[in-house]
């Protein structure tokens, strides 16, 4: 029997959910030729080991263990690319999505839809599993922005629960950004033509085991994905993020300068304190946001902070040097200052990427 469906399950620290997921799929997909691919980013809780334990006795179970990488979208992409089935479905590994809807989704695609999307927001759907009012609000705002950008009326564009023909996925794969966690949105935006989407309602279940990995900072990455689309990938997303963080740093610097001056420090001392605080804040923001995938933790974070301060210190020296030289030449202070600052940002970005966060 030809393989009808590969179910891709991105997971991070979902050990306790692996066996229940296989059992649930076994029940929901009875009569179909299916397989499941768990894509685990080397979770410390041993999610991969658990998936491979099941795979030993069940050839329908496969596992991709990725080392040194994090990211929901890229995990989904790699899982789907490992499929040779006729269709690919993506479902969360924490049992919050309703796997019993999969046959219905498959049918919708077999009947001609480009994609079937599990939706919490159409008639019969329910998002009561979303934990806090803040998350509900964030989710609503995201949906509105996404609808505008995708020019579709899809009611749950943030869904991580969908199904499509493998061929279609393969065709779109090279155009995906793989950034952040909104892979569905990434797919829709990657398509040169407007996709027909069948929305299948489901009830978002509360999480039973483990904890959610998606927070407000991940939503900032989502904004980045949209910005990247708007700029058509001309400017690297990381650079935009780095530059925005830099602007926040300037604000932090000025605020601390004001506060320290008000508290009686002389200008030189106040500006030194302001600069140091801004650097620490920038390191934190970049570590959480710009380089989220290679986030430094523990003693590596301290080492990274020290390196970051050295790199930015050199960047500041370059900035001042270039600005001074230009100013001496043309006497245009605003232009010279901006040119110096631009060189400084590019230097800080390029050097800290390779040295501090070791991006390959
Ligand atoms: N491999 C891998 N790498 N898997 C990950 C990563 C990662 O970096 N981060 C999260 N996952 C897995 C989780 O283990 C889980 O199976 C799934 O991706 C979704 O993550 P959750 O942390 O459970 O997400 P959620 O419940 O908060 O988010 C839900 O709502 C979003 C829309 O707001 C999910 O339904 C998402 O799919 C959906 O996009
Ligand atoms: Mn979840």
UniProtKB/TrEMBL annotation:
<dbReference type="Pfam" id="PF00535">
    <property type="entry name" value="Glycos_transf_2"/>
</dbReference>
<dbReference type="InterPro" id="IPR001173">
    <property type="entry name" value="Glyco_trans_2-like"/>
</dbReference>
<keyword id="KW-0472">Membrane</keyword>
<comment type="similarity">
    <text>Belongs to the glycosyltransferase 2 family.</text>
</comment>
<feature type="transmembrane region" description="Helical">
    <location>
        <begin position="305"/>
        <end position="328"/>
    </location>
</feature>
<keyword id="KW-0808">Transferase</keyword>
<feature type="transmembrane region" description="Helical">
    <location>
        <begin position="239"/>
        <end position="261"/>
    </location>
</feature>
<dbReference type="InterPro" id="IPR039528">
    <property type="entry name" value="DPM1-like"/>
</dbReference>
<dbReference type="GO" id="GO:0009247">
    <property type="term" value="P:glycolipid biosynthetic process"/>
</dbReference>
<feature type="domain" description="Glycosyltransferase 2-like">
    <location>
        <begin position="6"/>
        <end position="171"/>
    </location>
</feature>
<protein>
    <submittedName>
        <fullName>Dolichol-phosphate mannosyltransferase</fullName>
    </submittedName>
</protein>
<keyword id="KW-1133">Transmembrane helix</keyword>
<dbReference type="Pfam" id="PF04138">
    <property type="entry name" value="GtrA_DPMS_TM"/>
</dbReference>
<feature type="transmembrane region" description="Helical">
    <location>
        <begin position="334"/>
        <end position="357"/>
    </location>
</feature>
<dbReference type="InterPro" id="IPR007267">
    <property type="entry name" value="GtrA_DPMS_TM"/>
</dbReference>
<dbReference type="GO" id="GO:0004582">
    <property type="term" value="F:dolichyl-phosphate beta-D-mannosyltransferase activity"/>
</dbReference>
<keyword id="KW-0328">Glycosyltransferase</keyword>
<dbReference type="InterPro" id="IPR029044">
    <property type="entry name" value="Nucleotide-diphossugar_trans"/>
</dbReference>
<keyword id="KW-0812">Transmembrane</keyword>
<dbReference type="GO" id="GO:0016020">
    <property type="term" value="C:membrane"/>
</dbReference>
<feature type="domain" description="GtrA/DPMS transmembrane">
    <location>
        <begin position="242"/>
        <end position="357"/>
    </location>
</feature>
<dbReference type="GO" id="GO:0000271">
    <property type="term" value="P:polysaccharide biosynthetic process"/>
</dbReference>
